[in-house]
Amino acid sequence: MDFDFTWLLWGLPLAFALGWVASRLDLRQWRIEGRRAPKAYFRGLNHLLNEQQDQAIDAFIEAVQGDPDTAELHFALGNLFRRRGDYDRAVRVHEHLLARADISRKDRDRAQHALALDFLKAGLLDRAEAALHKLQGSAFEAEAMLALLAIYERSRDWPQAQRVAEQLEAAEQGSFTTRLAHYLCEEAEQALRVGDTAQAQQLLDRAVHKAPQLGRGWMALSALRAQAGDAPGAFEALLKLIAQAPQSLPLAARSLADLAQQTGRVPEAVAVLEACHARAPSLDVTEALATLSKGPDEARTRYLNHLQAEGSLVIATQWLAGERLSDPQAQPRVQAALEQASAPLRRYRCAACGFEARQHFWHCPGCQSWDSYPARRVEEL
């Protein structure tokens, strides 16, 4: 049977017309959705600039639904969830990005880094650690290593922290010498808690060799020797502190005075403390000199000399304790009031976050900064 080409002549124009109509409908729908998505996107930006995070999130969710293939909208939405503290939703957004097969390697690394930050902010340190390890060899490797270092410091895993710090230093990401010495001191404290003094001794020897300018190592070494009954060795360690890390002397002044009395080297200690006090008056150095004085009169003179160089409510309170008021019954009340008023001035304050404490910290418990506590009291800052 012969084929009728008449149907082909009619079918081709008809198929073309139907295709044209379908494309116009799809194009119209695409334009409608395209106009809707930018409006939602810009509305979200407006809310974000006005610090209206909840409204911004709703707008970005609408924009993502209109254009689910846009990775940037997902990143913006995930960051907003994290900033608001909605970590579960932030994790879901970034895991959804990682599950997609059509995103580039750059965006995949970016999503992995964002996911690690989600876990880190949520306090899920083990999951954050695993996510950060996957960023090795990426553009986020240096940031990931720094985040890992912070995790190991928070979990007090000092050997791992030492390994990461050495890798960062080898990659020329900064000098970590002082921080590595702190890690050795922290390990020494852990060894002392379990009674391993030999291990503590080795760790502290390495600490002072690595960073002799760090006063912590010399102070810990002096305390260890004093505990072992080696008062002369402990005294020598503090003399090395004064030579290598004079800025830390106020923290060791009282220990230096006690060891000087034990070893009979009071004149030497007085000479060292007076020289340091002449360069920079210090509450702790003055009090140490007062304890080494030959009598109450000399101690009061020390206090008066300090007050002449620098006004100090703390030293004035110490001086008044050795004086006799005309009304003996008023002495205890006045002394108690002055001690209460001066007590906050004897605290230490973190220079990074302002956290105050009665004791000096090498590692701030507030902001986790190292060496952010000056060796001087609040009144001297």
Question: Helical element count?
Answer: 18
In the CATH hierarchy, the architecture of the domain at 69-154 is: Alpha Horseshoe
**CATH homologous superfamily (4th level) name of the domain at 69-154:** Tetratricopeptide repeat domain
| Mean pLDDT rating | 80
What distance lies between the first and last C-alpha atoms, to the nearest angstrom?
Answer: 108 Å
Secondary-structure element sequence?
HHHHHHHHHHHHHHHHHHEE
Which stretches are low in confidence, meaning pLDDT under 50 for 5 or more residues running? 29-37
Q: What profile does the largest beta sheet have?
A: 2 strands, antiparallel
Name of the top-level CATH class of the domain at 69-154: Mainly Alpha
Query: Cα-atom Rg, whole angstroms?
Result: 34 Å
How does the helix and strand content classify structurally? mainly alpha
Quaternary organisation of the protein chains: single chain
Counting DSSP E segments of at least 2 residues, the number of strands comes to 2
CATH topology of the domain at 69-154: Serine Threonine Protein Phosphatase 5, Tetratricopeptide repeat
Can you tell me the overall shape? elongated
- Can you list the strand order of the major beta sheet? 1-2
Beta content = under 5%
Helical percent range? over 70%
